[in-house]
Amino acid sequence: MAAVVLGPVALAGLGVADVAAFNSRAVGLEQSWAAAESAGVSPGQLASARASLGALRDRRIGFLPYSIFSGALLFDPFGEAETMSAGVQSQALTQARARAREDLARLKDAGGPNYTAYEQHAAAMANARQLADYVRLVRAWEAEARQLGDARDALSTASGGLKDGLPKDVMDGVSRLQAVVSVATNAKLSTDPGGQALTHAQDYLKGQYPELLAQHDAVAAEVRSAGDTVQHRVDLRTQADQLMGRLPDLLTLASKYSVASTYQSRAAQAKAGVQAAEQAGDDAKMDAATTELKQSVGQLSSAVTSAQKTATATALATGAGCVDGEPAQLIVVHTATQKLVAYNNGCPFLTTLVTTGRPALPTDVGTFTIHAKYGDYLMRSPWQPSTNPLWYPDTVVHDAMLVVPADGTFIHSAEWEPASAYGPGSENGPYASHGCVHVQNGPLATLYNWAQIGATVIVMS
Q: Is there a contact between 127 and 224 (Cβ–Cβ < 8 Å)?
């Protein structure tokens, strides 16, 4: 009797236990899927496994649910669902691991040359085991890469581009500053504030992109300002040295041409001011002293140039004495005195009487050059017919030098003109030329052999 009563009770208890085990296993499976989804597995990837679980829950044996007879208390009824779930999660783990590797590589690139967290991140990658581990790393690294990439792009825009991953304007500014500091050092000039700016810049260039962006404008301005300051100091010294280098020659010429002593005195005082400023190492004083020296040298130079021109004009007009600042080969023809003077390196070496153009065809006045030389040259009259008062027969002249190609003006021989006919007034006499310059054979031969193509010829009245 007891067996009859206890048997159904035992079976009922076993069924209840199966249902509890079934539901517990089902809930655990669903929780694992929820965790997988939160770790990055999509609902679609788990759809088949969920469908398998749903089919078991909906299954009936007669009017009783399958869970009563599932035997979940003794074995696992969800093998198919769990197998599908494991495959999905294994695939997701592989994908997450690959994505993490890619993100780590992108992060290293985005971090630039000074990125310091790579080794730490690589260690975290090596220690990751679960899908959730990789998903956590991926999310963190992608956020960090976005932050670094944004900072890098903003830095590139602010600095005019990147050079070796670092702000181009600062890199270029450092190179320029190093060069000008070297020049200043060699010239025994102060390099302040170049040294401090270089230290700041070199420390700055070790930073990562967010720090580089935050400090960029201040560091770039400091490097640029320091470079300008040291460069200006070097430029001032160069300018002052050049001006002082000109002074000895200018003072010599000032004495030679009797330039007012006030110009000479002011230039000497300005030179002393520059030397005092250099000794003091005072940039402001050096700036002012160099400006004063430049002005005084300019005034002295202008006075010397004016006096020199006056002296040269007088010397050329008289044909006596050497001249400064004229071409190495210079021929001057004086139509008023009918005289030619040739200057070699500024000093007259040949003076001779000439005959120039008649009143109707005066010799061109101005500055010209010798364009061509002919040992023998056939002159043909452009004035026709022979009854024209200006006509002359075909004539061969010697040692001819072309001076004005436009109208055929030459310096040449005139064997038909007697020596006594040359000199003052001969331009009005019977041997006056048609615009050319007649020179006697002896002096002409010397002149012809000496003068080169391109020699300067001045014809003055």
A: no
pTM above the 0.70 mark?
A: no
Which residue matches tokens 């014809």?
459
Q: Is 116 exposed, middle or buried (CB count within 10 Å of its CB: 0-12, 13-18, 19+)?
A: exposed
CA distance 90 to 83: 10
Largest CA distance in the chain: 181
Q: Three-state DSSP class for 208?
A: coil
C-alpha–C-alpha distance, residues 264 and 248, integer Å: 10
Asked if residues 248 and 264 have their Cβ atoms less than 8 Å apart, the reply is: no
E strand or H helix that includes residue 455? none
CA distance 15 to 68: 5
How do the pLDDT tens digits run along the chain, 461 residues long? 444 434 454 455 667 877 887 777 777 667 766 767 766 677 877 776 777 767 767 778 877 786 676 666 666 776 676 777 677 777 888 888 999 999 999 998 899 999 999 999 999 999 998 888 888 999 999 999 999 999 999 999 999 999 999 999 999 999 999 999 999 999 999 999 999 999 999 999 999 999 999 999 999 999 999 999 999 999 999 999 999 999 999 999 899 888 888 888 999 899 999 999 999 989 999 999 999 999 999 999 999 999 988 888 888 888 888 988 899 999 999 999 999 999 999 999 999 999 999 999 999 999 999 999 999 999 999 999 988 989 999 999 999 999 999 999 999 999 999 999 999 999 999 999 999 999 999 999 999 999 999 999 999 98
CB atoms within 10 A of CB 223: 25
Residue type at 416 in one-letter notation: W
Helix and strand numbers, DSSP H then E, in the chain: 12, 13
CA distance 123 to 134: 12
The 8-class DSSP code of residue 412 comes to E
Q: Cβ(247)–Cβ(208) under 8 Å?
A: no
